[in-house]
Amino acid sequence: MLDLVAGGLTNAAIAGRLGLWAKNVGNHTSAIFTKLQVAGRAEAIIRAREAGFGR
Fold this sequence. Notes:
The chain has helices spanning 2-6, 11-18, 22-36, 41-50. 69% of the residues lie in helices and 0% in strands.
């Protein structure tokens, strides 16, 4: 899921791709942001791309 976030996809697009509800994707991305200790999506994308995701 982090790879898809880093690729610039919205929660709705990720949900469609993975066959999940957008609310579930939002919950998962919030948990990822907490684990990465980032304030939001933009910061998470930067950290993920530095780690090699989303390319």
